[in-house]
Amino acid sequence: MAFKLNTDDIREAPALSIIDALTSTGAIVTADDPEAMPNVKVQIGDKIKYADNQYDAL
Length: 58
Description:
Elements: H1 14-24, E1 30-31, H2 37-44, E2 49-50, H3 54-57
Parallel strand pairs: 1-2
């Protein structure tokens, strides 16, 4: 979800726009990003589901 791999930087992250577009159509989004997840949770809250790892996200 972060803008850059292995960081917590979500400024202008394309994933956030994609999440907005998907959830606005009723999609259920599950994501995992160990570094960025705390920042994403602050910004979008429970709008998506958060997985513990990439396999659970799939």
